[in-house]
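User: I'll paste a sequence; please echo it back and then give the predicted structure.

Assistant: Echoing your sequence first, then the prediction.
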Amino acid sequence: MITANISTVYTVPVIPTLMRYGMTKPMYENDGILVCDISYQILATKYQKQVSGLDEEGNTTTETVAIDFATPVLFHEETKTIPYQLYLLIEQYRLTKSVELLEQINGALTQFTFQGSLSEFVLQVDSIQ
């Protein structure tokens, strides 16, 4: 198969669905608070596509559907300093799968700030393996 590079700029909304992370610097004290550094990647496994069809009356309709990428696409990666207590909370959730812990984690994740095109992105999770 022959490959051609596309020069047309076109935007496709992607849906970030996975986050991979790992500790890069273990617990240390920073301004009297115990913290650690994590490196993370946010991946998109789906994108939005407009699909046209016909309704019962024969009128053309358009709806937005989520389509799977063949493989996850790297959406964002960064290294961040987080409270060590949050890291422990995440590890405890991984062991217990407690809904209450997940709610606490999501509350803490609202403090994550992103820059640029992700400035309005609010990280929330529904499970952690």
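Residues 3 and 112 are 40 Å apart (CA to CA). The chain has one domain: 14-118.
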